[in-house]
Design a protein that fits this description.
Low-confidence stretches of chain B: none
Protein name (chain B): Cytochrome P450
CATH topology of chain A: Alpha-Beta Plaits
Low-confidence stretches of chain A: none
GO molecular function (chain B): heme binding; iron ion binding; monooxygenase activity; oxidoreductase activity, acting on paired donors, with incorporation or reduction of molecular oxygen
CATH superfamily of chain B: Cytochrome P450
Mean pLDDT of chain A: 82
Oligomer: heterodimer
Largest sheet of chain A: 2 strands, antiparallel
Bound molecules: protoporphyrin IX containing FE, iron/sulfur cluster
CATH class of chain B: Mainly Alpha
Largest sheet of chain B: 5 strands, mixed
Distance between the termini of chain A: 18 Å
CATH architecture of chain A: 2-Layer Sandwich
Strand content of chain B: 5-15%
CATH class of chain A: Alpha Beta
Mean pLDDT of chain B: 92
Shape of chain B: globular
CATH topology of chain B: Cytochrome p450
Number of strands of chain A: 4
Order of helices and strands of chain A: EHEEHE
InterPro entries (chain B): Cyt_P450, Cyt_P450_B, Cyt_P450_CS, Cyt_P450_sf
Helix content of chain A: 10-25%
Number of strands of chain B: 10
Family (chain B): Belongs to the cytochrome P450 family.
Organism (chain B): Streptomyces olivochromogenes
Structural class of chain A: alpha+beta
Chain lengths: 69, 399
């Protein structure tokens, strides 16, 4: 599975980092880094992170891209 | 009825089981609806979110002059402070709790929380009558925060006791005598503060890998908390995480027992749970209202609200605003666009949300398999007094 964060929506609330710290990482206080290819054992956590993002900035699926909306 | 009595009607205990029609009336009358006592009530989503992000809106009750000035002299916790002081304290508390400094702390507690909810769920046996509040939801949040902080297990009961007293002081009805409870609360606050400070002292220089150890051993003197701030802010975690979490879990069970088709859906597909928890935060949220005070005169959709006036933001109404959510009165765990305000928004966005989500998911996950044949013994159940922090006092069910 792949994930893309729409960084124009992301507000740096870091809810995703709490739920899937191996996939999402906060760089400094605001900048968000993430792994686009989600390892098999992290898929469930990434789903939780996507549900929890207050601005719904996390897109999931096969072959998603930030322009997909 | 007159719209300037809306707040009085919402807080009227008789309307606790179903305030939602009043919220609909509020949104119709709004966006900004003046109340008879001079305060304002706001129930529309876009205005609520805008005000939660507006730096002119103070969360500090000491900014208030109308309807009545705030007369408690004790220093408020960061929940009710403004930046820069709010930021300083929240940031110090966040370092040992979450990213960027401690990204794994909350996640590493997941297994323990799941285990805890499984143990608590052992009372759910065929044929028994259970009170979901007292027998299950109530002990969960205090235990979790104790484990997070690193309180020795043998002392968890002490914290349950102190939290009980503080929470009871906050759930006062209009007619009750508050002086005794206030005094008990003051004492509980002091004892709890002293305990935390002493334990912190023991761990200074001898860290044991928990949040309290990290707080007292913070190497950067500029962010290290003073003893007083340490006590106030750790007490905040207990109180803020208590009734809120209890209400979310209990509202979850109530909602699912009222809508058996959704219960079955979640039983069949537990992968829906994280989204079901988000939908609960929108549909039956624990926190119904929060207060803010404009520091200067502000304009809200054409209404001028004078500086110093109490403004009550009805978050639970905003999350059911039809201008923002389609079919807002329907509970739908697969709702695609669910930017609710159940955890607030802006700089005071719930600090404990990541923990609360894991607790709610684990709790409902542990209970759902036992609810197949369960039924509510009282519907609506008896509610707590508090209209702003709303939830059942008991939820008796038959298994
Ligand atoms: C389902 C459970 C919970 C709900 C619905 C909830 C809701 C909220 C809301 C609405 C706010 C914003 C208040 C405002 O804007 O005035 C808030 C703030 C806060 N919450 Fe929670 N909360 C929950 C659980 C927790 C837990 C478990 C903790 C502690 C671990 C916690 C700690 C806090 C703190 C410290 C704040 C203040 C944040 C700030 O002022 O910057 N909450 N919560
Ligand atoms: C929204 C409706 C709420 C109402 C009506 C309410 C009411 C109260 C009252 C009456 C008290 C005790 C009196 C006092 O200390 O001044 C209190 C204390 C407190 N509440 Fe709330 N509360 C609400 C929501 C929340 C939320 C959402 C949080 C956290 C997120 C929270 C955190 C606290 C804290 C930290 C204290 C102070 C504990 C202490 O030091 O005594 N409350 N609340
Ligand atoms: S939860 Fe959403 S807004 Fe917050 S950092 Fe992650 S992607 Fe950004």
């Amino acid at each position: 599975m792949q994930t893309v964060v729409d960084l124009t929506r992301c507000q740096g609330y870091a809810q995703c980092v709490f739920l899937a710290p191996e996939v999402f990482e906060l760089h400094g206080e605001e900048g968000l880094l993430y792994a686009t290819a989600v390892p098999e054992d992290q898929v469930e956590r990434v789903r939780q992170a996507a549900a929890a993002c207050p601005v719904q900035a996390i897109l999931l699926g096969e072959g998603v891209s930030a322009g997909a909306r | 009825m007159a719209s300037d009595t809306l707040l009085a009607r919402i807080t009227d205990y008789a309307n606790r089981p179903d305030p939602y029609p009043l919220y609909a009336e509020l949104r119709e009358a709004g966006p900004a609806v003046r109340q008879a006592d001079g305060s304002y009530l706001i129930g529309t989503y876009h205005e609520i979110v805008a005000l939660l992000h507006d730096p002119r809106m103070s969360a500090d009750p000491r900014s208030r002059t109308t309807p009545a000035p705030y007369n408690v002299t004790r220093q408020p916790p960061f929940l009710r402070l403004d930046d820069p002081e709010h930021h300083r304290l929240r940031n110090s508390a966040m370092r040992p709790f979450g990213p960027p400094h401690s990204p794994g702390r909350v996640d590493s507690m997941r297994g323990e929380i799941v285990q805890l909810t499984k143990e608590l769920a052992e009372v759910f046996q065929e044929g028994r009558q259970i009170d979901v509040v007292d027998d299950f939801a109530y002990p969960l949040p205090v235990t979790v925060i104790c484990r997070l902080l690193g309180i020795p297990h043998k002392d968890e009961q002490l914290f349950q006791g102190w939290t009980d007293i503080l929470v009871a002081a906050a759930d006062i009805g209009p007619e009750s005598d508050t002086a005794d409870r206030e005094q008990a609360a003051d004492q509980a606050r002091q004892e709890m503060g002293q305990y935390l400070v002493q334990l912190g002292e023991q761990r200074r220089g001898r860290p044991t890998g928990d949040m309290l150890s990290d707080l007292v051993n913070e190497p950067d003197a500029a962010v290290r908390l003073s003893t007083e701030d340490l006590a106030i802010n750790t007490i905040l975690l207990f109180i803020a995480g208590h009734e809120t979490t209890v209400n979310l879990v209990t509202n979850g069970v109530l909602t699912l027992l009222r809508q058996p088709d959704q219960l079955h859906r979640l039983r069949e597909d537990p992968g829906l749970l994280p989204r079901a928890v988000e939908e609960l935060l929108r549909y039956e949220p624990p926190v119904h209202m929060r207060e803010r005070v404009p520091l200067v005169d502000i304009d809200v959709a054409g209404t001028t609200i004078p500086g110093g006036t109490s403004v009550i933001l009805a978050l639970a109404s905003g999350s059911r605003d039809p201008l923002r959510f389609s079919e807002p009165d329907r509970f739908d765990p697969t709702r695609p666009d669910n930017q609710h305000v159940g955890f607030g928004s802006g700089i005071h966005l719930c600090f404990g949300a990541p923990v609360a989500r894991i607790e709610a998911e684990a709790a409902l996950g542990a209970l759902i398999p036992h609810l197949d044949t369960a039924r509510l013994l009282q519907d609506p159940p008896p509610y707590r007094q508090n209209a702003m922090l709303r939830g059942p006092r008991h939820l008796p069910i038959q298994l």
